[in-house]
Amino acid sequence: MKQVVLWIGANAGGVSKTTLAVHIGYEMAKRGFNVALLDLDTNVSMSQFCGLDKDPPPEQTIAAVFDENFDGNWPLMTPEWGKPLGQFQVCLGGPVMIQVGLELAVRNRREYILADRFEDFPLPHQLVILDCPATLGHLNDVALAVATHMLIPVELSPKSLTGANTLLSWHRGACKNLRLNPPPQILGFVPTKYDSNEATQRDLLNQLPEMLAPLKIKCYPHVRYSCEFSNASGKGIPLHLHRPTHRAIKDLHPICQELSAILEESKDAKKNAK
Hints:
Oligomer: single chain
Structural class: alpha/beta
Strand content: 5-15%
Largest sheet: 6 strands, parallel
Number of helices: 12
Order of helices and strands: EHEHHEHHEHEHEHHHHH
Distance between the termini: 13 Å
Shape: globular
């Protein structure tokens, strides 16, 4: 089966990148796919969301993968809840990635380091999710060079939409400079933290599909705001386990259905080729 490497990126913090990464990953694992979540971010949100060590030694983080002497032993961890049907594993990042980002500036083939690791030491997972910093620096270049698909979360505010437009401009320029052929496919934008009680959000939600249509970029249905996402992360578990019947879980289904279709289509194509 073809491997999908999904980069979840934004040019702003607090737009639910990590929330989406964990919950899409868990939902896909529930559907029987093996998922690896690689945390390139510099904060400890991923550790918190997954109930894992917030201060692991560098050799137990993705920083080890960037080491020049990396031997292919990916430092993956499995949360206690990480085997719903398929497997959900995490390669933690955190503050150690600040130094990694600085060191990338003087590395040969810096943008392709992670892509080289994927080629030399392939991960067996069908879906790999990249959770990246909210700044368009070296670590996002690294993610772009290895990604097959992109998902762009955006809050429904003028500031967030301006940041998303900047991200698209960066994406076009970076793909050209890195000579990515093909470039990662943009699955679409996903409005996050939607509150139907706010008139500005309602207006922007109606406008966003029209704004994206000329660019031929999909707009997924919104993911509603709920404090239960924060409550679940405080316990180090997905919302699926914290509130199994919560309506926000279904908000993620359109994205997961498309990812499932991509993976199943590649599986069928491989069978037909045989």
